[in-house]
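User: Here's a chain of 740 residues. Predict its fold as tokens.
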Amino acid sequence: MDYVKEYKSFVNSHYLASGVRITAGVVLPAIILNYFNQLPAGIMVSLGAMCVSGTDNPGPIHHRRNGMMVCTLLIFLTSLATDIVEPYPVLLGVFIFLACFVFSMIGVFGSRAISVGIGALLIMVLNLSHRYEGWQILLNAVYVLAGGIWYTLLSLALYSIRPFKLAQQALGDCILATADYLRIRSRFYDKQADHDAVLTQVLDQQIVVHQQQELVRELLFKGRDIVKDSTDTSRTLVLVFIDLVDLFERIMASYYDYERLHKFFDDTEILEQYRLLILELGRELDDIGLAVKEGVPAGPNTPSRNQLQTTRAYLEKLRDERRSPENIEVFISLRNILDSIEDLSARIRVLQLYTTRDKKLLQEKTEQLEYEKFVTHQDISFELLKDNLSLNSNFFRHSLRVSIATLAGYIISRFLPLGHSYWILLTIVVILKPAYSLSKQRNYQRLLGTIGGAAIGLLILLLVKNTTALFVIMLVLMMGTYSFLRTKYLVSVLFMTPYILLLFHLLYGGNTESIFADRVIDTIIGSAIAFAANFFLVPVWEHGQILGYITSAIEANARYFKTVGRAFAGNPASIHDYKITRKEAFVALANLSDAFSRMLLEPKNKQKSSRDIHQLVVVNHMLTSYTATLAYHINPLAAKYASPDFEPVIDAAEIHLNAASRVLQHESIVTPLNNEKPVALEQRVRDLLDKRREELRNGMLDSSTRQTLAEFKPVADLFYFILRAAADIKKISIHLSGEL
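Assistant: Prediction complete.
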């Protein structure tokens, strides 16, 4: 691990910026009001700010503003209602159940709505720690409202000072994730690599890259503020992202028969040189990602260009020494790989030039696209909510689960002689997620982080006696808590628990050991309730939903291939249609991989047909990679070799993929399957190979046939690879549909 890179990335990340912002937003009200001897009021204002800060997720500024405003209103009303019903245990239990159901159900409106709901539930649970009467109830709710308003104004003010900073940080993270993806793919060239394990890592990293790309799309295109802005900074961000997505497609396109390459060339240095060259490109991408986050120019990619020259000279020498009529095809693959690496280097060079804000380059690179079609729009309507009021809805089941589990936690807490039993409810609320695997993972991390963090907190209290020093340590722990909350939950909890212990110690002093015991015991009880609810209360297992992800991936891949393939049949698609279908294919593949990863975290007896599903994930990935490789050859080979000979392959692949989709949806196959293999392309390649072999036997090293073969054969091979992958998808889908 490159610790310097990790440090620079974290220091310039929006996660740390968010941690500092939230810490300031939460702590300042308490400090200021404490100065005026109003600490209880300051604590409530800080709690309101903390609850609203959870909705301040990265995204378009108008979404962030609306989310914080809605959350501010909800926490005010929830705080008011909770304090009114708190003296009546039965009524409070009913209120907890209904509030948990309603605030969990609003998650159907997207991830920001989920955060709004959690913020409302947090203020409900935290209000249970005190009892208010009379006008104090309204005053307490007003303090909470003031906290929400304060944090909203703070966040919007900071955004107005640096409106591009969040987009820069997110784009930099996206570049770094792409660099990690490139490094993982370099392992295919390692002699000792387990190709199946590497492919699994590739699929996992694709999910990360997809999530980062979706965030950047939202920041750049959803509000259109940055797209409409005419400054060099805004244009640089947009152009870097557009070219980065093209670069990612180009990396995905680098998919070859690695086992065959190792068989022929493991006794040479060529594959190791390729691996080192790709690693160097990954390092240069890292530099660009960090430069974008910092807002400074990146250095030139001179090392990779020097390595390219050395590697090409070595390949030419190896080809001259070993070329024969029998190994023409593998040498064509070797040359294509190096051409691909060279293309990646050139694309990375363009990204580097963008960071210099070269005005001439920014003016030349103008791409007019309908940006709003590249982002996902969230439907917010009563109809959507009504449609999800059914056991068929995962959100409805999750809402029931949270409501019943929290009510059970409340009932249990009424009979426990613990001073902070509301932590039981707090644990349940933050642990339970719609997916079993996510809840299981969060449960484990919460338990481990709480126990470890409590030990750290006690150690700090034993070693540090100075109040000012403890306060500074608490601020650092707070920043760590909120900085890692969205990325590394275990680390976040490790920071959170000692921060809470120090907070109670500074506020109330007294027996810290009892607070430690309460925190650990309540967390264990809450985790146990959450685990039981997750497993027994209307659970949703991934095998019941994954067919939808598979079908979406197959259909998206079919559209992507058709858009790319028809260019070789003389009917090219527009750049807009091509990029739309590409984005849909990448997103569908990432969603499928993510769903399968969640499925593998479920109990073994719930992982139905995992072998077939894994095969479909892998073959869909190969199909996307083949299509991306084919897309790379469109310019200039599509026009040069356009022919009706490609149409039978396109039609046959489409028939296979449509059949697979219909079978998985339990529909009959309406298009008859043609078992005749398209032979026109295969015959053209065979004729070229025979002619070239004859030329080599006659000592003719260079000819027009050599050039044609080097260009045409990879294209024809890709069409047949795609056809074979489509046929495999159909075959596996038929078998899978019979099992599920």
